[in-house]
Amino acid sequence: MLTEKQIIAIEDDLIDLYKLAGNFQNTFFQKNDYMHVNSGKFAWPNFIFNVNISPENSDEIINNISKDIEQKLAPPFIITGTKSEKSFYEEQFLKHKFRKIMEWKAMAFDLKLLDFKERNDVVITRVINASDLFVWNKIISQELFNKKEFSFDLSKFLSNNEKIDLFIGKANDNPVCSLLAYYSKNFVNLHMIATSSDYRRKG
Hints:
This protein is of the alpha+beta class. The protein is built from five helices and eight strands, in the order H-E-E-E-H-H-E-E-H-H-E-E-E. Strands 4-8-7-6-5 form a five-stranded antiparallel sheet, covered by helices on one side. Strands 1-2-3 form a three-stranded antiparallel sheet. Helix 4 (130-143) crosses helix 5. The protein is globular.
């Protein structure tokens, strides 16, 4: 099991990735009490994160966040994090009529424990050229973003980052799934995990 120190390090990696993509698209904003990347509907990243609240100021800050969301100055999704204050954060947002919709339990692996098991029916390859990148971008556009085309320029930017690898999974030579791996010290953070509907629930 991961320690709280390791979990905080993973969360910091996630924020770094959001800021990296947001700065490239000029959609990253830092306010006094929170950060957000406002990339638009069915785009990525599109979250409020790194919210800094306490029992003394939570009502004021969450009201300000609500106003920014209503005025479409900030996205309507807030990541509360996995730090020890998580229960307090969730309690405060729920009190202000926010709704919990998802909990991410496993977005990172200890590299020492990562064990790839080969399968004869699935081939996983790293994106190494423009043709691969086009295929990767097509998969995530169709399966993650409601068939709205994901920015190819952002995909290209991410693929050129030394901390990032993009992967395509093929079944019977057909591209069926995608993955973005973001490496940091002893961990790899997994994002953009998408599988074509015809190949889901098949192990």
